[in-house]
Design the sequence.
């Protein structure tokens, strides 16, 4: 008799890496009992490009554009974290005007990232209209980026020491107009989804991850705050002057997919508050610190983490005194948060796996690097 590896009621099914709801080339091996998920295993690496090793074979300035290609939905945040880490090695600080512009562009990036998440997440669950609505608003952010630095997606907006570009004429006005336009549009998204009984059935009590479990898995960002933990690096370990801005940290307590949706919506509203404050404090001044043309940080190491749209994004850089980093390591939130997928999926249905992957908000360029 041949050996039996699986019980007759069990089925192993591949989801991805070509599945549209895996948000990239993610392969999830599902162990099923009928429609019930008994376990999952993520197979990653299909988009691996060796970004960290590339960083060790480029100069500090040459590597700067590469980080935009990790979480390409939040390229501005990637660039901010890297620039802050190198600036810490150099012991320089961006001028006040540059720091304010950085905050404005980073918060616009947070909104753009959440908009893309909401549109695609709703599409995964079965709602088509929110995708068109969210892409409509995201286009306004892309237009601001395009006018500022000539790029829309992989926006190489920041440089080590500050900014290479001064803001264009009308920048402040366009940012304020976008903020005025966005708030009623967020209310529109809520009218479509929040009280929708199908939306609630697909998300409420689906993918529950408690606060303790979030801490065990190292989960950060909106997922952690949806579990009731008020942890945001903009408040806990402020950078770029965030300690001077007035904004709230939205939290929920049910720790399910629905609460993560609510948290991200409220985060967009808080980002609007920050952008308005930033525009109000833009003053005339330089946008670049005094940084040597050939960047050679002294021997040492630095770890800087920021609150990216998906969670804690950290850069660990070791300098040996040369023009190239000796070691570069990235702590990407998508990669760390993805660990919790198995825990959230167990006991649910196959359809819930799609909703849970969407609610983690992963980008495979950041997972695989």
Sequence:
């Amino acid at each position: 008799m041949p050996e039996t590896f699986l019980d007759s009621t069990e089925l192993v099914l591949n989801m991805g890496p070509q599945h549209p709801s895996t948000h990239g080339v993610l392969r999830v091996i599902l162990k099923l009992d009928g429609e019930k998920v008994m376990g999952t295993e993520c197979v990653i690496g299909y988009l691996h490009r060796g970004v960290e090793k590339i960083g060790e074979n480029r100069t500090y300035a040459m590597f700067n554009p590469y980080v935009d290609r990790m979480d390409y939905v939040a390229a501005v945040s990637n660039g901010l974290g890297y620039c802050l880490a190198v600036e810490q090695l150099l012991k320089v600080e961006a001028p006040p005007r540059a720091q304010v512009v950085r905050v404005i562009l980073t918060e616009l990036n947070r909104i753009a990232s959440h908009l893309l998440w909401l549109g695609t997440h709703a599409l995964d669950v079965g709602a088509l209209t929110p995708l068109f609505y969210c892409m409509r608003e995201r286009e306004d952010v892309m237009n601001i980026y395009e006018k500022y630095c000539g790029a829309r997606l992989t926006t190489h907006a920041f440089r080590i020491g500050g900014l290479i570009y001064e803001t264009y004429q009308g920048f402040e006005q366009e940012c304020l107009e976008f903020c005025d336009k966005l708030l009623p549009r967020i209310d529109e998204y809520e009218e479509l989804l929040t009280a929708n009984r199908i939306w609630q059935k697909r998300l409420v009590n689906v993918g529950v991850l408690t606060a303790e479990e979030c801490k065990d898995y190292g989960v950060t960002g909106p997922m952690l705050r949806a579990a009731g933990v008020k942890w945001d690096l903009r408040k806990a370990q402020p950078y770029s002057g965030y300690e001077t801005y007035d904004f709230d940290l939205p939290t929920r307590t049910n720790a399910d997919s629905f609460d993560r949706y609510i948290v991200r919506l409220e985060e967009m509203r808080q980002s609007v508050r920050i952008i308005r404050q930033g525009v109000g404090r833009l003053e005339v001044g330089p946008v670049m610190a005094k940084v040597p043309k050939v960047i050679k940080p002294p021997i040492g190491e630095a770890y800087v983490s920021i609150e990216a749209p998906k969670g804690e994004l950290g850069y660990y850089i070791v300098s040996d005194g040369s023009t190239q980093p000796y070691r570069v390591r990235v702590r990407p939130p998508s990669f760390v948060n993805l660990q919790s997928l198995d825990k959230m999926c167990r006991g649910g249905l196959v359809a819930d796996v799609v909703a849970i992957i969407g609610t983690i908000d992963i980008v495979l360029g950041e997972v695989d690097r």
Remarks:
- The chain is about 45% helix and 15% strand.
- Residues 50-333 form a domain with the Cytochrome-c3 Hydrogenase; chain B fold (CATH 1.10.645.10).
- The chain has a mean pLDDT of 89.
